[in-house]
Amino acid sequence: MNNELYSPKKKDNMEKAYFEDYEVGEKMVSPARTLTEADIINYAGLTGDWHPLHTDVEFAKKTPFGERVAHGMLTLCIGSALIFRLGQYVALPKSFIAFYGMDSVKFPNPARIGDTIHCEVEIVSLDIKDEKRGIITSKNAIKNQRGEDLVVYTTRALVGREPQS
Fold first, then answer.
1. Is pLDDT of 5 > 60?
2. Residue 6's Cα: distance from chain center in Å?
3. DSSP the chain
4. Could you report the per-residue pLDDT of 63-97, keeping only the tens digit for each?
5. Cα-flanking dihedrals φ and ψ of residue 71, to 5°?
6. How confident is the model at residue 1 (pLDDT cuts 50, 70, 90)?
7. How many angstroms separate the CA atoms of 55 and 24, rounded?
8. Pair 75, 3: CB distance under 8 Å
9. Interior CA angle at 97 toward 165 and 86, to 5°?
10. pLDDT at 15 over 60
11. Are 115 and 109 in contact (CB under 8 A)?
12. How many other C-beta atoms can be found within 10 angstroms of the C-beta atom of residue 136?
């Protein structure tokens, strides 16, 4: 993890209210969290996805991974939520309206039990939708402790614009 990007005193990590509070090129890095066997079993129970690649040690030993790996969607869910540990209104502003979309989701490497993951976000586009709303587009990467990409994707959020007096 590149700790130089994370600083509670940096402008990028300050709470934001509106679309206009963001800048293209702005980067955020979340605190990290370790994936556990309990995460995998709980996710399997919640979703019904008991594929042996995730839940059967002996089966998983015979796969190209050589061990159990976390569900890709589990990694995406946990990893993407880590950015909110920076503060409720850092990655998304107080005027957040709706999650507007997710594109180009890829899982280039598996997440393994014991991997410590974090999320890196870069604002890549700010598009005005109308006088009251804008769309923030972010490039996101969930990485492990070795800096390997586990999940990469693009998100869009519909947010409020600063009222004009």
1. no
2. 15
3. --GGG--TTSGGGS---SGGG--TT-EEEPPPEE--HHHHHHHHHHH----HHHH-HHHHHTSTTSS-B--HHHHHHHHHHGGGGG-TTTSS-TTEEEEEEEEEEE--S--BTT-EEEEEEEEEEEEE-SSSEEEEEEEEEEE-TT--EEEEEEEEEEEEPPPP-
4. 999 999 999 999 999 999 999 999 889 999 999 99
5. -60, 140
6. very low
7. 41
8. no
9. 100
10. yes
11. no
12. 25
One-letter identity of residue 77: C
Terminus-to-terminus CA distance in the chain, angstroms?
42
Q: Domain 3-160 is classified in which CATH homologous superfamily?
A: Hotdog Thioesterase (3.10.129.10)
Q: Residue 98: what pLDDT?
A: 97
Domain boundaries defined on the chain? 3-160
Write down the residue that tokens 């997440």 correspond to. Answer: 111
Give the tens place of pLDDT for each residue, 17-33.
Answer: 999 999 999 999 999 99
